[in-house]
Design brief:
By secondary structure, this protein is of the alpha/beta class. The chain folds into 2 domains: 6-219, Rossmann fold, CATH 3.40.50; 237-420, 2-Layer Sandwich (Nucleotidyltransferase, domain 5), CATH 3.30.420. The protein is 35% helix and 18% strand. The protein has helices at 6-15, 22-31, 47-59, 73-91, 141-148, 170-179, 201-209, 213-219, 237-240, 291-300, 327-332, 335-339, 351-362, 379-387, 404-420; strands at 36-41, 65-70, 96-98, 103-105, 111-116, 130-134, 158-163, 185-190, 241-242, 252-258, 263-271, 278-287, 309-312, 344-345, 371-374. It has an 8-stranded mixed β-sheet with strand order 3-4-5-2-6-7-1-8, with helices on both faces. The chain has a 7-stranded mixed β-sheet with strand order 9-15-12-11-10-13-14. The longest helix is centred in the N-terminal third of the chain and has 19 residues, at 73-91.
C-alpha cells in the first residue's frame, strides 16, 4: 500500500509543469483522502491528463503497481500516449517502456500495465496500488466486479473511474455513492469549460451551436440525461414510477415469462379496463430457472383475483433438461393450471412493434401516461428503461443478456393486452 502525500503530489505536478484547474485540484485533494473515485466530467475537461499524474505518482514508489484500462485498444492507446509522455518526462532513462506489450517498468520495481475489456486476460493481474478505468461508463459492470475490484484488495489500492455519462448505468450508481460518501466512494462532476486551459468563451459558444441539446448536456455539461441511443427516452421516474399500488379491485392480472438462456425474467402486471392503466408491481429477474421453480413462483404470487393470462416468450417452446419437456408444455400439463383453466399464451411479435406499443403507454402524443411501475416491486425493470439501448443504425435493442430479458417480457404483456382488447398492432410513432 502506497502512502498518499498531498505535498508530494503537488511537487510532482510542479515538476511536470502541470497546472491543474479548480476541478482538478479538488480531485487531487480527494485522491489523497479516498480509495475510490468516480469522475464524471465533460469532454476535454482534462480527465486523462489528471490520471496520468496519479499514475506517475504511484510509479515513483518502490514496487508501485498501476493498471490502466479502457473498453477498446484504441481508447486505451489514447491514454497510453499521455502516460508514456508524462512518465518518460519525469523518470527519463529510469523507466523502460515496452510499446508492444504496453508496459512500463522502473529499476525500483514499479510497473504500469495497460489492459482492455477486449482482452479480459489483460485484466487478470492482482496486487495493484492504482487501477484506472477510462470511459468507464462504456464498460460492463461485470468487468468492474470481477476484474477491477478484486485487483486492488491485496495492497488496499485505489480505483479511479473516469468517464463522460452514458445513461443511468452502474457508473451512475457509483457516482451516487460518491455524492453521499458511501462505501468509500468520492465523486465529482464538472463541465468541459471548467478546463480554462482549453475552453474560452468563443469555443464554448461554438460547441453549443454545433450540438443538439441532449448531446451537449451529456458530453459537455456531464449531466446524466437521456442519450440518443436510449430506447425509452420518454421514461421518467417522476411520471412513470409510483411508490404504492393503487386499489386493484376489478383489475385484470397478467404474468409474463421470458425463460432466457442464462437469465429468466418474470413480470407481474395489473390492468384497469376502465382507465386503461397498466401497472407492473412485481418481478423476478435472475439466473435461469427450472420448470418446477417457475411453477412455484407462479403459484406463490398468484393474485387474489387469479391470473387473467400467463404469457411466455416463444423460447418457452424449446426443450430443456427438465426431463425433455419445454416450459410451455410442462406448465400446460400441470393440474394446478388446468384447475384454473389457464394455459400459456405465446404471440409472435416484432421487436419494433413491441417497442412502439410500450412507448405509446409510457407517454403518447397526447401527453397521456398509461404505464407505471411500483418502485419497491420491480427495481430492475425500472433500471432497464434507462439502460436499454438501440443497436447502432437499427430500430431493435441490444441483446446484452441483461436488460433485454425484462424488456422482452414487458413488451409481450403489452402486445398481448392490445391484442386482447382488439386494438390490432398498427401504431406509428
Amino acid at each position: 500500500m502506497i502512502v498518499k502525500d498531498r505535498r508530494a503530489l503537488q511537487a510532482l505536478a510542479k515538476a511536470l509543469k502541470f497546472r491543474p484547474h479548480a476541478g482538478q485540484v479538488k480531485v487531487l485533494e480527494a485522491f489523497c483522502q479516498n480509495r475510490f473515485l468516480c469522475l464524471v466530467c465533460g469532454r476535454r475537461w482534462g480527465k486523462t491528463l489528471l490520471v496520468s499524474l496519479l499514475a506517475a505518482y504511484v510509479m515513483l514508489h518502490r514496487d508501485g503497481k498501476v493498471l490502466a484500462m479502457s473498453k477498446t485498444y484504441k481508447l486505451a492507446f489514447k491514454m497510453w500516449r499521455y502516460l508514456a509522455r508524462d512518465i518518460k518526462r519525469l523518470l527519463g532513462q529510469n523507466v523502460k517502456i515496452n510499446n508492444s506489450e504496453m508496459t512500463m517498468t522502473t529499476p525500483w520495481g514499479a510497473v504500469l500495465e495497460l489492459g482492455t475489456a477486449e482482452n479480459p486476460d489483460s485484466l487478470l493481474g492482482d496486487g495493484y496500488d492504482l487501477v484506472i478505468a477510462d470511459e468507464a461508463a462504456t464498460l460492463k459492470e461485470v468487468i468492474f466486479e470481477q476484474n477491477l475490484s478484486p485487483a486492488i484488495r491485496d495492497r488496499k489500492g485505489s480505483i479511479v473511474l473516469i468517464s463522460t455519462p452514458r445513461g443511468f448505468n452502474w457508473v451512475f450508481n457509483k457516482f451516487r455513492l460518491g455524492q453521499s460518501r458511501e462505501a468509500g466512494w468520492w465523486s465529482y462532476t464538472g463541465p468541459s469549460n471548467e478546463n480554462v486551459h482549453v475552453w474560452d468563451k468563443d469555443e464554448w459558444e461554438l460547441a453549443k451551436r454545433q450540438s443538439d441539446p441532449i448531446y451537449f448536456r451529456q458530453e459537455y455539461l456531464a449531466e446524466f440525461v437521456v442519450f440518443a441511443d436510449q430506447v425509452y427516452c420518454d421514461f421518467t421516474e417522476e411520471r412513470n414510477v409510483i411508490t404504492e399500488l393503487p386499489d386493484l379491485t376489478g383489475w385484470d392480472h397478467y404474468l409474463c415469462i421470458d425463460p432466457g438462456y442464462r437469465t429468466a425474467a418474470l413480470l407481474w402486471a395489473a390492468h384497469n379496463r376502465v382507465s386503461d392503466e397498466l401497472v407492473f408491481y412485481r418481478e423476478h429477474i435472475g439466473p435461469r430457472l427450472r420448470n418446477e421453480d417457475i411453477l412455484k413462483l407462479i403459484r406463490e404470487h398468484e393474485p387474489e383475483a387469479g391470473y387473467t393470462a400467463i404469457i411466455s416468450d416463444i423460447a418457452g417452446h424449446a426443450r430443456t433438461g427438465d426431463a425433455g419437456f419445454s416450459l410451455i408444455s410442462y406448465l400446460n400439463e400441470q393440474e394446478w393450471m388446468m384447475q384454473r383453466n389457464l394455459y400459456i399464451t405465446v404471440h409472435k411479435q416484432g421487436i419494433t412493434t413491441g417497442i412502439n406499443l410500450v412507448k405509446s403507454r409510457i407517454l403518447n402524443a397526447n401527453g397521456e401516461t398509461r404505464l407505471r411501475y411500483v418502485s419497491g416491486g420491480c427495481p430492475e425493470l425500472i433500471r432497464m428503461h434507462y439502460n436499454l439501448m438501440y443497436e447502432e443504425g437499427r430500430e431493435v435493442y441490444v441483446k446484452d443478456g441483461v436488460w433485454d430479458h425484462p424488456a422482452d417480457a414487458e413488451r409481450y404483456i403489452i402486445y398481448h393486452l392490445d391484442r386482447a382488447l382488439g386494438r390490432g398492432v398498427h401504431i406509428d410513432l
